[in-house]
Amino acid sequence: MIRCFDVLLSLLGLVVGLPILVLLYIAGLMDTGSPVFRQQRVGRNQRTFTLIKFRTMKKNTEAVASHLADTASVTKWGRFLRRTKLDELPQLWNVFKGEMSLVGPRPCLLSQSELISERQACGVFRARPGITGLAQINGIDMSTPRLLAETDAQMLANLTVKNYFRFIALTVIGKGAGDRVRDSQ
């Protein structure tokens, strides 16, 4: 049932949101010259897939989890995209293709071995990763691997159609702070 909602809502988002996607793409061209960011992430059953986002950091920034990235690497345009969560819109394509869900655990980097171990122990990899979920609306990020994995497992155990739409609605209205980036030193 949730997969049907994923397909319908992601297709609707891609079609209706196309003008917005194009405008964000053009603005990103002016910001970094390379508005789309692709990165290998860990997906369902620990298969890797290519996550697509709008670029929020300077080109050639080291590929690390957001909480390990330096604020100096985030562009002004990127701060706006992160604050509004518009950087996530291209992931609707990942959802449409079946690599992700709108609601699920955020996909981690291949290098995040502690988080991968915690998620394995909690059975989180049985589900598709998502754009948003319980951890995101509560401000829990990848800097606390055990708490994140436990929160993801709790969400998946209680994921109903009602909760699915609740998490989406709370994300759209701005609940949660987005990915935290460490301050420059």
Could you give the topology of this structure?
Layout lengths: L1 H15 L1 H15 L3 E7 L5 E7 L21 H9 L6 H7 L3 E3 L9 H10 L7 E3 L1 H4 L7 H13 L3 H12 L13
Parallel strand pairs: 3-4
Antiparallel strand pairs: 1-2
Main features:
8 helices, disordered C terminus, two-stranded parallel ribbon, mainly alpha, 185 residues
Folded structure, characterized:
With 185 residues, this protein is mainly α. It has one domain. The chain is 46% helix and 11% strand. The protein contains 8 helices and 4 strands; from the N terminus they run ααββααβαβααα. A two-stranded antiparallel ribbon has the order 1-2. Strands 3-4 form a two-stranded parallel sheet. A hairpin with a 5-residue loop joins strand 1 and strand 2. It is globular.
Strand order of the largest sheet: 1-2
Low-confidence stretches: 180-185
Instruction: Please work out how many helical segments DSSP would assign.
Output: 8
Task: Kindly report how far apart the N and C termini lie.
Answer: 47 Å
- The counted number of beta strands is 4
Biggest β-sheet description:
2 strands, antiparallel
What is the succession of H and E elements?
Answer: HHEEHHEHEHHH
Percentage of helical residues? 40-55%
Strand content: 5-15%
Pairing-aware structural class of the strands and helices? Answer: mainly alpha
Choose one word for the global shape.
globular
Number of domains: 1
Radius of gyration: 16 Å
> What value does the average pLDDT take?
90
